[in-house]
Every structure is written in C-alpha cells, then in structure tokens.
Task: structure prediction
Amino acid sequence: GIQVEQSPPDLILQEGANSTLRCNFSDSVNNLQWFHQNPWGQLINLFYIPSGTKQNGRLSATTVATERYSLLYISSSQTTDSGVYFCAVERGYGNKLVFGAGTILRVKS
Amino acid sequence: EPEVTQTPSHQVTQMGQEVILRCVPISNHLYFYWYRQILGQKVEFLVSFYNNEISEKSEIFDDQFSVERPDGSNFTLKIRSTKLEDSAMYFCASRGSLMEGEQYFGPGTRLTVT
Result:
C-alpha cells in the first residue's frame, strides 16, 4: 500500500517563529488532507489540498503531486499551534485515507 | 457549517462488554468511515460504508466489529466483546460523493477498556 512519511517527527519552536512540515508519499494520490490534532485529541481539518497552494491565515500548504510531496507552512507560530500535525492521502476515489505518523509541534512562549 | 458529531465523547467499559459508538454524519453525505487511533500512534482506517454495505475493511476490523446505519442519520460502530487493546480514540468521517475528495471528521470518541 501507499506509504506516507512526515518530517520532522518532532519540532520545538519559540513563539513567533516560522516552520515547514513535510509530507512525502510513495504513489500518486487523488486526495491529500492536513490535520491538526489538538490536546483534546480532536482532528481539526486544516487543508484539503491534492495539488496547488492554499492559504488560511497564518497557515498555508502546497502540494506538488508530480513529485509526491506536500508542505505545511506555519508562520508567526503561537502556543495554540502546539499539537500533532498529520498528513493523510487517498489513492483513487471514495477510498480510505492513509495517515502519516505525524509531526509533534511544541511552541514555547 | 455542517459537521460530523459523535457520542459519547468518552466511554469507559469493562473488558468483555459490548459498546456502541455513535456518529451523525453530515446530512446528504453518502460515504462513511471509521478510523481509530491508539494513544501515541497514527490514525488507522477501520472500515468504509456506502449504500448500506461495507465497501472496504482493514485487517483490524475482525468479527468483533460491526457497522450499521440504522436510520437516515446515524452511523454506528459496535464492538461485541471489548478487549484491553481496543482502548483508543475512534473517529467517524463522512464525504458527500466520490468526486468530493474531502473527508470530514467528527471529534472522536475516546474508548477506555478496563
């Protein structure tokens, strides 16, 4: 099956710093989503981005489908950005999402 | 904005007991999914459901598990005889159509088996 690798596995930032999280996948995909898992365990959908670039406030994401990777940018990080960031991909249509292992982000004040 | 809801938010049960986790997908969505996440691990697919039948299931989804859409709004996951290793966060998701790529996730149910 498709493999999803996220890097780095852990990241510690000072409040106000910028960061880039990466997601590599081993095969072509029709769906790619980025999630933030908050301290209560909820999965918050950040982006649905099978290709191209999207921005939402301080967050933006870019997926280069032909090269099989996606990047999540966090600018001017805040302590509330702490948590685990997951990338998930889907091959074909109507199928399951396959999740990466996540990046644990800690933002210090 | 429409959202997927799940109940209960947290369930504690004894080993061997049956549990039913409930989900209300977004109205008019047609495809439904259950995922689980053991503490500290990645989110894993359990089962997908369309047109009142299972579309795909993972190796995890053995005979202890079943899913049902008992009416036009609810989507349930039943675990017949819980084991300690079933302790996890269970997420329900739904999508509107095959071509609508995004899956919308519920807030999850934390299941603790003692």
